[in-house]
Design a protein that fits this description.
By secondary structure, the chain is an alpha/beta fold. The chain is 46% helix and 15% strand. Strands 3-2-1-4-5-6-7 form a seven-stranded parallel β-sheet, with helices on both faces.
């Protein structure tokens, strides 16, 4: 069975994608910072009959990243790495003139540095896979200027660029930066708590990711709304 590492997988988009892959028979290595929530997610996904390894921890910790890749190796390798774990930097979001620099550093550490570190750890196994794939979960804030989203958006723009360069440097892999669009997630609620507008559930976005895995287009940046057209 193919093996995927998914960070930030206890809830939201990470859990929804993990559930879809488990239903397809994928073995999974899941990461999140809250042990109890992650354990509940792992138990639910294991009901599909696949092997699920849940490792709570912080992706900013190099030792934790090594544990994730080692767990995937024990399952058979790494066919897919999904860098989904994200940090806002400050909650709720604020204008750049009030953005705490320590918070901005945290966003860069989680969203960019840790993502690259995990790619570096997993790269030998990804290269050995017949269909090695890296997905960087991006944001429209990486490409558009929205008030208060500057720090988070800058970190996602950096992640997009890393993904683009990785795609050039590793032509045998597929490397996709994917903007999932608006979703009803805890991250968005923490970012803009006063926004009560209804938003799509993460499960509604997952078919866009599955389409990428099924069709395997060239490495690049993709938006979920466009991928969902015609499905």
């Amino acid at each position: 069975m193919p093996v995927a590492i998914i960070t930030g997988a206890s809830k939201g988009l990470g859990r929804a994608l993990a559930e879809a892959l488990a239903a397809r028979g994928w073995d999974l290595v899941l990461d999140a910072r809250t042990p109890q929530v992650l354990a509940g997610t792992a138990a639910a996904l294991a009901a599909h009959g696949t092997r699920v390894t849940a490792l709570p921890g912080d992706v900013a910790d190099p030792a934790h990243r090594s544990e994730l890749v080692a767990a995937a190796w024990r399952l058979g390798g790494v066919d897919l790495l999904v860098n989904n774990a994200s940090a806002l930097g400050v909650e709720p979001l604020t204008r750049l003139d009030g953005l705490p620099l320590d918070g901005f550093r945290r966003a860069l550490e989680v969203n960019v540095v840790a993502a690259l570190g995990l790619v570096q750890e997993a790269l030998p196994l990804l290269r050995a896979s017949e269909a090695g794939t890296v997905i960087a979960v991006s944001s429209d804030a990486a490409a558009e200027a929205y008030e208060t989203w500057g720090g988070y958006g800058a970190s996602k723009a950096a992640l997009d660029h890393l993904a683009a360069v990785l795609g050039e440097e590793e032509p045998r892999l597929r490397v996709w930066a994917v903007d999932p669009g608006d979703m009803a997630t805890d991250l968005y609620a923490a970012a803009v708590p006063e926004d009560r507008e209804p938003r799509p559930r993460p499960s509604g976005v997952v078919p866009a990711f599955l389409r990428l895995l099924d069709e395997r287009p060239p490495s690049g940046r993709y938006g979920a709304p466009a991928l969902l057209e015609g499905l």
